[in-house]
Write a structure and sequence with these properties.
It is a single chain. The chain has five helices and four strands. The protein is an alpha+beta fold. Strands 3-1-2-4 form a four-stranded mixed beta sheet. Helix 4 runs antiparallel to helix 5. It has two domains: 80 residues, no CATH class; 40 residues, no CATH class.
Length: 135
Amino acid sequence: MRISKFIVTFGPVHDEIHEGLGLGRLSKGWVEIQAPDHARARHITYAIFGDEWAFDYTPENFFDRSGLRPLNEAYPEGVRLVIPWLDRREMDEIAVVIDETYAAADGDSNDGEIELLQAARDELAMLVHYQPKED
């Protein structure tokens, strides 16, 4: 399977919306999504950012001939995040980690750190469409 890169940009309003991600000013850079096709790249974008992004591009429509500089100089900070494509083996490894966090957190749901871990685990499970094992 051939994996391609897709570019997602953001407007100034998205800086505040996505502030909690720790990626700086998203409106001054871009996010690279790696996927086999445009439809899957858009699905990943929606899964992570919801409707809170501006435009998506192929590298040919975003970069100059060198492939290094954006055609639009509004993105001086460059790539803010790369979201790699996960193959089946990697997805299976993620499933193991998700299941292990359920086992590790069993009975500790009132602990603040465990609750954060559970929230991250649940987001990851949703993103990769994984249903954790039932005890």
